[in-house]
Design goal:
This protein is an alpha/beta fold. It folds into two domains: 72-268, no CATH class; 286-432 and 440-522, 3-Layer(aba) Sandwich (Glycerol-3-phosphate (1)-acyltransferase). The protein is built from 16 helices and 13 strands. Strands 5, 6, 7, 10, 11, 12 and 13 form a seven-stranded mixed sheet that branches. Strands 1-4 form a two-stranded antiparallel ribbon. Helix 4 crosses helix 7, helix 5 (154-174) packs antiparallel against helix 6 and helix 7 runs antiparallel to helix 8. The longest helix has 33 residues, at 39-71.
């Protein structure tokens, strides 16, 4: 326990050193007027330039060594260290001498004294720190994806996480406006000015030392939590992303978030069979919420990046509560763009009620269910699609998924989340089920019903915010209408008609059809 406390203390110092490094590179170097006239400022700047890079790498390696010694055992910790350090050092010495397998580059003096006057002694320590963190996360991620995946698949997963870190770190170092560089490229390439072969070198080096370590270990470590490796890996990716942001490189940041941080965070959620193999493993209570938070931030970032060429105009955004339970009820125009513009404009986490009756095969079904589960999005099958030929759900499965999805939706709203429900049921532009929107007249009562049930649980009305959407070639408009306060005892039919009026769409056809739709959807008369 003392070692674990020491590990987190060292991690705190490590995180502070990383933050100090980002501040020095992104702020102090570009704004000397902030510190040049102060004696203390000049002293701190001189210390940072000489020792900052060395300090953060050494602190990170020490923190992980102390944690791993207690968590996975001395033999596994030392064997990984003694395999990784010499192999990575050899690869770096060959690389700086011959240009293979990383490309033509050389190190500056910012990372400590150099071995053979070529490679700073801290570089192999950095390989160890991120390499072991990536490999341990790969073990947890493999068990999370499927306990039936072969054990050897841990190596390519770990290599993937390792390479993704470099995908966001190297572009910043290769950028012409980066004043403080730890290494310099002597050749250009297709990936943000650096050679693509560099990533082959990273993958090859990581594959070698992870494969040997796996063979030396024999069995995977037992009774450990992936939280500390996740914290180390995330800190390194955020550090590299901050450097990219300082020079205006947003593509690598989005890539690192989706391909690195998201799967690393998914690794925190261990599969049930894995928890049985690790009886002392306890999933921290924040982990599920953390996975959903990471998924939302990644999707929101991706949405903003992919909509940069489009003008987004919002009216009435202040009507969306900053916190607390609420339901968004937008028009459904496009099967993807509707969600993108909502994610790009609304500054709080969104959960979408998703219909998966369109999936073309079992593989797609498994993938979409997994992604929705990780994002915290309730999943249903629309009642009108249950008997459609080719649907990937049986009748009983579809009904069970519908009930569970609606219950999850109510639970999430009652827990204070913001849920998006498309009351029109189908988008106008839908390549999966083209033409189905034309068969639907009026809106569905699901958004109102969910708000009613949540209001019943909380004893207070739930705001349902209608959202009008308008798309043009280079612009999109989001018009947020005044909220409809839905209480537990309000009329489903009349409230749905009010919602339809706010959206400017057709209301439910008749009282009879409304009752039939509600009975089919909700399982009871409204």
């Amino acid at each position: 326990m003392r070692r674990l406390s020491l590990a987190w203390l060292l991690y705190g110092a490590y995180a502070l050193a990383l933050a100090f490094g980002v501040g020095g590179i992104a702020i102090a170097l570009n704004n000397p007027a902030l510190w040049a006239d102060l004696e203390l400022g000049r002293a701190v700047y001189a210390f940072g330039m000489r020792w900052g890079g060395t300090a953060y790498i050494v602190l990170g390696a020490l923190a992980l060594l102390v944690w791993a010694w207690q968590a996975i055992g001395p033999r596994k910790t030392l064997s990984f260290f003694l395999v990784t350090v010499p192999i990575s050092l050899m690869a770096e010495l060959i690389g700086t001498s011959t240009g293979w397998p990383f490309g033509n580059y050389s190190y500056t003096s910012g990372l400590g004294w150099k071995i053979l006057d070529r490679v700073p002694f801290t570089i192999p320590l950095s390989w160890f720190t991120v390499g072991l963190s990536a490999y341990l996360l790969a073990i947890a991620l493999r068990c999370r994806i499927s306990p039936h995946l072969p054990a050897w698949s841990t190596v390519p997963i770990g290599v993937w996480l390792l390479v993704v870190w470099d995908l966001v770190l190297d572009p910043a170092m290769a950028h012409e406006s980066m004043q403080a560089r730890f290494w310099v490229w002597h050749q250009s390439g297709a990936y943000y000015g650096m050679p693509v072969i560099n990533f082959f070198g990273w993958a090859l080096t990581g594959f070698i030392f992870m494969s040997i370590s796996r063979r030396v270990w024999g069995q995977e470590p037992d009774r450990w939590s992936p939280t500390f490796p996740w914290a180390i890996y995330t800190a390194n990716v955020i550090f590299a992303s901050a450097l990219c942001a300082a020079v205006g490189l947003w593509g690598p940041i989005a890539l690192a978030a989706l391909a690195g941080l998201l799967p690393a965070t998914i690794a925190l959620r261990r599969a049930g069979s894995d928890r049985e193999r690790h009886p002392r493993f306890k999933r921290e209570p924040f982990q599920d919420a953390l996975v959903e938070e990471m998924a939302w931030r990644s999707l929101a970032t991706l949405a903003r990046l992919t909509l940069r060429s489009r003008s987004l105009q919002t009216y009435g955004l202040e009507l969306v509560p900053a916190h607390g339970p609420a339901v968004l009820a937008p028009q459904h125009i496009h099967h993807l763009d509707d969600g993108r513009v909502l994610l790009a404009t609304i500054p709080r986490p969104l959960r979408f009620l998703v219909a998966l009756d369109w999936v073309p095969n079992r593989r797609w079904r498994w993938l979409m269910e997994l992604l929705c589960r990780l994002a915290g999005w309730p999943v249903i099958v629309r009642p009108s699609e249950r008997d459609r030929p080719g649907i990937q759900y049986g009748t009983a499965e579809a009904q069970l998924l519908l009930v569970r999805g609606l219950r999850d939706a109510v639970r999430r709203v009652a827990a204070g989340q913001l849920l998006v429900v498309f009351p029109e049921g189908y988008p106008l532009i839908d390549p999966h089920l083209p033409g189905h929107r034309a068969t639907v007249e009026g809106i569905k009562p699901g958004a109102i019903w969910i708000a009613q049930r949540a209001a019943r649980r909380l004893g207070t009305p739930i705001p349902v915010i209608p959202v009008r959407l308008r798309f043009e070639q280079r612009a999109a408009q989001l018009i947020f209408e005044p909220p409809i306060l839905v209480s537990a005892d309000c009329s489903t039919v009349s409230t749905a008609a009010l919602l339809a009026d706010r959206l400017g769409v057709q209301a439910l056809r008749t009282t009879t059809n409304t009752r039939e739709i509600a009975v089919e959807l909700l399982g009871k008369d409204p």
